[in-house]
Specification:
There is one protein chain. This protein is an alpha+beta fold. The chain has a single domain, classed as NE0471 N-terminal domain-like. The protein has 3 helices and 7 strands; from the N terminus they run E-E-E-H-H-E-E-E-H-E. The longest helix is centred in the last third of the chain and has 7 residues. It is globular.
């Protein structure tokens, strides 16, 4: 299975987005996640990247890159959850 490396992650008023080094892009709308939906823009903008996902420390929320890209139809789910990763 080919792995995809995350190049950039950003948020706007409605969603979190990620793009890979080869240009594939996926997003999650905040409405899908109660903590993110109810968070302030400042809380949403304060995130940390790990190898496998995104963490919002101010609201204690985590989302995986693989889940995001699977939801967008761009990868299969794996046991290790590392088919999409951040190598920052």
């Amino acid at each position: 299975m080919k792995k995809m490396q995350i190049d950039r992650v950003w948020v706007d008023d409605h969603a979190v987005y990620a793009v890979t080094t080869d240009g594939k892009q996926a997003s999650y709308e905040f409405d899908k996640w109660p903590r993110l939906r109810d968070a302030s823009q400042e809380q949403r903008a304060e995130f940390e990247l790990s190898y496998s996902g995104i963490h919002w420390p101010l609201i204690d929320e985590d989302l995986s890159f693989e889940g995001m890209f699977h939801d967008a139809g761009l990868c299969d789910l794996t046991v290790a959850e590392d088919s999409v990763y951040y190598g920052g």
